[in-house]
Target: GB1/RHD3-type G domain-containing protein
Amino acid sequence: MDAFKGRSQTTKGIWMAKCAGMEPCTLVMDLEGTDGRERGEDDTAFEKQSSLFALAVSDIVLINMWCHDIGREQAANKPLLKTVFQVMMRLFSPRKTTLMFVIRDKTRVEPVLREDIQKIWDSVPKPEAHRETPLSEFFNVEVVALSSFEEKEDQFREQVANLRQRFHHSIAPGGLAGDRRGVVPASGFSFSAQQIWKVIKENKDLDLPAHKVMVATVRCEEIANEKYAAFTKNEDWCQLEETVKSEPVAGFGKKLSSILNTTLSEYDVEATYFDEGVRSSKRKQLEEKLLQLVQLAYQSMVGHIRSGTFDKFKEAFDKALNGGEAFSVAACSCTENHMALFDEKSADAIVELANWDSSKARDKLRRDIDAHVASVRAAKLLELTSSYEAKLNDALSAPVEAILDEANKETWPAIRKLLLRETESAVSGLSSALSGFNLDEQTKDKMLTSLKDHARGVVEGKAKEEAGRVLIRMKDRFSMLFSHDSDSMPRVWTGKEDIRAITKTARSASLKLLSVMAVIRLDDAGDNIENILSLALVDTKNNAADKSITTTDPLAASTWEQVPPSKTLITPFQCKSLWRQFKAETEYSVTQAISAQEANRRNNNWLPPPWAILALIVLGFNEFMTLLRNPLYLLLIFIGYLLVKALWVQLDISGEFQNGALPGLISLSTKFLPTIMNLLKKLAEEGANPATNAPQRNPATKSSKHGSRSDLSSIASSTVNSSENDTGYSSLSKDD
Model:
């Protein structure tokens, strides 16, 4: 035997052998088990015959029992003992035999076992001669209990050895062999056993089941097998089975029930004359086999119904949502309608003979519907929240960037006002949209809070982004204020502007921008960052006085006072570093402005110093009086002035000397002679014009001379104006 392969028959029939090492000589018979599956439940005649044979020829009969079978009907062999006791009293004379019940996995059940045996003996119909005969006249009942072999192997082996010891000298007085009445000599044992077996075999009370039952069993089973085979080849069934594999079949339950009823009716007609019990039993077996065969088709049909209903639900649900119906209303109505549709179609697929239900498929359909609703809800909610988040991005990003670009004391209040307005608008819209989803308050509040956090995150993200470009913004603001006047016109450095004041104003505005961008102020919490930066970076005189008192640098820290690190965009130390870099990069513009102003002053200031003018007046008084006495000198000086002015304009002497004295002289030397020749040529052309009237010769000549002077003056003045305009534009382009 191999316990891991399961239980099986180890003894077939009756085996006999001499017991080794046993005194006196003892024969042992091993009988086939009384409850073996190999013979089946209907072949019990041999079990009864062999049991009766053992009781008739043996002095001691050992009956193996599991302790848990005591008190049961079939497992304890009660029907078998009852039949054997009854036949034994009728066939054989009283002979006391020892019945030793060996109980495996012992428990305290000996009284129960003895009580059961006594009840069996009392219930057995007895012949008149033995009606009052007690059990002890026929049997000596012994009960031996053994421990579990698996749990207590050593104890089990010890108890078996003790039991074997009891069989030594079993025929001695007081031994296990009983009274040994009717003992047969060893030489006649074989013949006696043959006669006893013959009597037992001829007894019809042990020949069960009856003949008609056996015939009915065989024939009904044959009919059932024939009908089962015919059903498997039935065209309607084959077509129905093939179709239901790929698609649902309308009226599936009625069609299949009709085919099954037809098959069972044919069985009933052919088996109607056989034993009713056998006929009914075999019919039930046929019905179970047929239902087992068609169950797969039924499951396929229910699966088609479930999948088809689920597809229709998804289509109807999407249509309802696209039609503008509220989500929770659409989900509830579509779920109820399609669950009812599933129940209706499942009822059409029910097979009358089977006690099947579609509860598992229904539960799976409900789970699928709930999962689909949950997934669509999640997708819709995600789409909804994403839409409002995108609206917040559009409503906040550009305005916040524009507000931060202005950077004044109203920057963060304006941002807070904008954030509050847009957040309330988005939260109100989302709250209204969520009302159709039938969400619990906790989930709804969580989503609204998440939207508020997103809006705040957009502002903070944009602030961080702008803080990363703060140096560029500072330089742009400085350049705008420094290079443009109050009317936003490009500034021309004429020498009258206060560059120091303008520089201080531009730098203060840039510092204001830096203080605004230093931290996030969405909670309306006050701080003195602007004052700290102003004192540390701009007010150098006060700062120097403060340093003489204390050596602590307010910007030598990584955090601002009363500002959490999470709200800090630019640390104090970073502000100091940025300001240093800002001043270094804007210093060039200030230097250029100062240089342009100085150059403009030099270009526009051609008068000698006052002392030189006074010296000219005192020392040149006599010459001045001489000019007054002789006006011809004045005329010559005026003509000389016009010529010099014309040369000055034509040669652009001021422009040439802006590049330096030596380059200016070289350039003038190359242009001086061509310019003189050009002026003389123009004068010659003016003087070559002939007079038209002779009497008016002198006046005409005088007029011509006057005209030449006027033309020369006009040429000089136009050239001077042109030069001045060119100089102005040149200065403007340099400032730009």
